[in-house]
Amino acid sequence: MQIKEHIRQIPDFPRPGILFYDISTLLAHGPAWKATVNHLDRWLEPLNPDLLVGIESRGFLVSAPLAYLSERGFAMVRKRGKLPGKVIPFNYDLEYGTDTVEIQADAVARGHRVVVLDDLLATGGTMAAAIALLRSVGAEVVGAACIIELAFLNGRSKLDVPFESVVCYDS
Predict the structure, then answer these.
(1) Chain centre to alpha carbon of residue 157
(2) Catalytic residue chosen out of the listed positions 58, 72, 78, 102
């Protein structure tokens, strides 16, 4: 199945000059969505993770069905102030400024093997921050994956774990 055919590109969203890769059309096509989830499930199986971690918010759409399918746990990395209870924050640099991601303090046990998932890898900053956050709480990050990789932004170079994407755009 050609997964790219099910990803809509929307120019000038959310602001002029940005080309947005919209997975809502992929999610709406049952066979294409099933093929996407199965692709990622086959990839992560040899990594034998204990836990799948999704990055807010479309990363939840990727990691939750994979966790269900593979009978693994699921945890969330979210932006500051979105998780209840005690959280562990991680600050990271953006092109212009900083941002913070958090995980609940009891979401990941020291030594857990985890795979980090998101819908899209662009510059790699958020994925690298999630990996660093998970390591700071004692997780062993054994891989990262996404549906879409924008290879021309070279985000993969910021990751030091095995990485998989279902579709890749070179320009």
Answers:
(1) 15
(2) 58
Tell me, yes or no, if 15 is annotated catalytic. no
Catalytic residue among 8, 45, 78, 95: 95
Distances (CA, A) of 9 to 18, 24, 25, 86: 10, 11, 10, 38
CATH assignment at residue 78: 3.40.50.2020
Q: How far apart are the first and last CA of the chain?
A: 22
59 in any annotated domain: yes
What CA–CA distance (Å, rounded) separates 57 from 49? 21
Active site residue 110: no
Residue 136's H or E segment, with its range, is helix 125-136
Domain count, the chain: 1
Residues spanned by the domain of 128: 47-169
Q: Taking the mean position of all CA atoms in its chain, how far away is CA 121?
A: 8
Q: What is the mean pLDDT of the chain?
A: 97
Per-residue pLDDT of 110-147, as tens digits, reads: 999 999 999 999 999 999 999 999 999 999 999 999 99
Return the axis-axis angle of helices 30-44 and 58-70, rounded to nearest 10°: 70
pLDDT in tens, 26-61: 999 999 999 999 999 999 999 999 999 999 999 999
Q: Does residue 72 lie within any of the structural domains? A: yes
